[in-house]
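Predict the 3D structure for this chain.
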Amino acid sequence: MRSVNALVMTGYGINCHEETAAAYRMAGAQAEIVHCHDLITGRVSVHDFDLVTFPGGFSFGDDLGAGKALANKVRYRRLPGGSTLLDELQRFLAAGKFVLGICNGFQVLVKSGLLPNVRGTCQQEATLTVNDSGVFEDRWVQCRALPHPGTPFLQGIDRIDLPVRHKEGKLIFRDDALRARIVSEGLNCLSYCDAAGQPTLQYPHNPNGSVLACAALRDPTGHVLGLMPHPEAYLSALNHPDWGHRFRQDPGLSPEGEGLRLFQNIIAHCRSPEHT
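Done. Predicted structure below.
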């Protein structure tokens, strides 16, 4: 069985790296936690990995806008060879590899231009701004994936409960034309949904007011995925706030948390013959 190597970034206030690395290891991958400084100084190369993940946390304390300061390092800080980390990530993706961003990591991908990147120029086309509620939302939400999500991360996932922890998670797009393209290409691949499983803009089911009820966004290739909810915080069924009731209703319930599925999906895809 082919080994899959995942790079999990840390540093500058990122604080969900351990859980994210644990998720990859539980899914059967090798995971290495790497400080962002080691990437932008060239001590570690993204090209030695199959997956690069920007985890959740508060890079630079969000003091300069959610993910913006780290996104600027990705875009503009020159590596010893003269390229930027964004240049290297574009080469990484061109080689058929994958990038994941969770919460603050999603913000970094959007503000660095890697998402949604419908024009293929890595120019910023969207942003994540303050929740409509105006407060930090720290609770669980229900989400629903598109039947054909267009990315291996969400393959086979329908409805999924996940926790959110953010104050700046409202996704908005540059203009109506871009928004229409997001819909037509199915890039809004995971939605906040109500109790009936329908995508919704209504609070509290939609915790931030994101347009299109968008909880996750992919690029046109499906190789870049960003989401505001935290799948790495749901690796065990016991993480769920209603776990006791769930096990009483279904004693045969899997001990795995629903969030682990996302990591299992991408590891299985990376090992598949069509990918290798």
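The domain at 5-271 is CATH 3.40.50.880 (Rossmann fold).
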